Amino acid sequence: MKPKNQTLQTQVVIIGGGPAGLLLSQILMKADITTIVLESRSRTYVQNRIRAGVIEHGSMELLCNANVGERLLKEGSKHSGILISYENKAFRINLSSAKGKSVYVYGQTEITVDLYQAQEKIGATIIHNVKNVLIQDINTKKPHVKFEILGQKYHINCDYIAGCDGSKGISKDFIPKEKLNFHHTLYPYSWLGILSKTKPVHKELIYASHQRGFALASMRNENLSRYYIQVSNSEKISEWPDEKIWNELTKRLPTRFSSIIETGSSIEKSLTTLRSIVVEPMQWGRLFLAGDAAHIMPPTGAKGLNLAFSDVYYLSSSLINFYKTGSSKKLELYSEQALSRVWQTVRFSHWMTSLLHAPEGNNTIARKFQLLELEEIFTSLTAQRALAEGYVGVQY
Ligand code: FAS
Ligand code: PHB
Question: Could you tell me the distance, in angstroms and rounded to a whole number, from the CA of residue 228 to the centre of ligand 2?
Answer without folding.
Answer: 8
